[in-house]
Design a protein that fits this description.
Helix content: over 70%
Distance between the termini: 99 Å
Largest sheet: none
Radius of gyration: 36 Å
Order of helices and strands: HHH
Number of helices: 3
Strand content: under 5%
Shape: elongated
Number of strands: 0
């Protein structure tokens, strides 16, 4: 097939594609936009959703904060300088 026929074919397809694009754009522009009318119960659900999301975030955060406090406290309590003088560990040291 000669090159002129191949390029001519693509031009026809290009014009059809442009026409189709414009038709679809006009059809989409003619569709009215949906309004976001929210009833009071919708607002209540939105507020409850964000309250629950906040509670879950705080639970997640405090879990790891408490874990770090426990590990830090146990490390502080296990230091030799914190042991009472009459404990079993102080007797085993030279």
């Amino acid at each position: 097939m000669p090159a002129s026929e191949q390029s001519g074919g693509s031009r026809v397809q290009g014009k059809d594609a442009e026409a189709t694009f414009h038709e679809l754009a006009e059809a989409e522009a003619a569709i009215p936009e949906a309004s976001a009318d929210l009833a009071p119960e919708d607002w209540i659900c939105v507020i409850l959703f964000w309250i629950l999301a906040g509670v879950i975030f705080l639970q997640f955060l405090t879990r790891y904060v408490l874990m770090m406090l426990c590990f830090t406290g146990s490390a502080m309590a296990a230091r030799p300088s914190r042991m009472p003088a009459g404990s079993a560990t102080s007797r085993s040291r030279p």
